[in-house]
Amino acid sequence: MRRDTENKQSPILLTPGPLNTSAATKQAMLRDWGSRDDEFIALTAGIRRRLVEIVHGEPDYLAVPIQGSGTFALEAALGTLLGPRDKLLVLSNGAYGGRLGRIAAILGRAHAMLDHAEAAPLDPAWLEKALASDAAITHVAAVHCETSSGMLNPIGEIAKVCARHNRRLLVDAMSSLGAVPIDAGAWAADAIVSSANKCLEGVPGLAFALVRRGALEAAKGQSPSLSLDLYGQWQGFEANGQWRFTPPTHAVAALHQALSEFAAEGGVAGRGKRYGENHRVLVAGMRGLGFETFLPDECQAPTIVAFRQPKGFDFPRFYDAMRARGFVVYPGSLTEQPTFRIGCMGRIDADDIRAALAAVAESLKAIG
Ligand SMILES: *Cc1c(COP(=O)(O)O)cnc(C)c1O
Fold first, then answer.
1. Which of 6, 15, 7 is nearest to 356 (CA)?
2. How far, CA to CA in Å, does 190 sit from each of 47, 59, 168?
3. Could you report the per-residue pLDDT of 168-184, keeping only the tens digit for each?
4. Ligand 1 pocket mutation pick from 174, 208, 303, 334 by most atoms within 8 angstroms of CB
């Protein structure tokens, strides 16, 4: 499961995405498809079915892929599932939680933010209080893995509070789906949103929402957008198996291949194991070099790690030194502290992480 070493031009992407993909996934794009061909319709049906299986969503959940990056699918989900009389409560402990609030604001949907500290997991007791004190709230939105810090939020507990108060749950599972177990039925979420180019190791170009059938059926005509309407998109697939508007054909084919490799690796358990190993090697090595993680280990997801920037650390120079050695690291997006991020996702393994750690040591020397 090491990186695609045949492709010498590709850097190793230690980022929140896009990520390294396998040679076979890139190979799958080396032909053209007609969007109305039976063959392409079968590819689409295949990925829709397998995406639902990843969250054990049969028969209640439907996969609705949408053209674009992950944010397009989040915007489609919120726009489609929130009605003009609904009110959304966003639980946030980082940049991606904040983005959910911005989407609701731009869509003109009533919403409130429940902001947490960036180093604190979402708190079910706070949610309990917020729901008890505001009967207008119909929906709750939260991020499973908050990619700005690497926090793995306790969505299972959040879901229980929502169920007790009879509110609907919408989950951004962008950087967890495929590597962290998700049981759609246990969460009883109305929507779980993710994209092709994170833990599923497809290429950028499409994202998807896994939506509870009843929630989707009730959402007809609710979206203020034509292209970002999950109901309309679903009706298109129902009618003839085709995408309503030009599909990202090559990205669909790549995801189809990536999902076969995902199954061959042992699904969520296998992928979670490889990322977990990447993560353990990374954190142990970085600590050995004197770095500290932003989060305590117990709430850290195995997908991306935020490290505190030491005093006087020159991140742009560190970035350039790492890039010159073939590795792409990522700036931080936390507001409480200067951090930078190193990802553990994509088609890389622990040997790649060891190589990255050697590059970190060299880069530190190079930049003084
Ligand atoms: C990657 C990511 C997104 C989507 O970002 P795009 O740049 O639109 O793909 C949303 N939420 C989280 C938690 C993410 O990690």
1. 15
2. 20, 14, 6
3. 999 999 999 999 999 99
4. 174
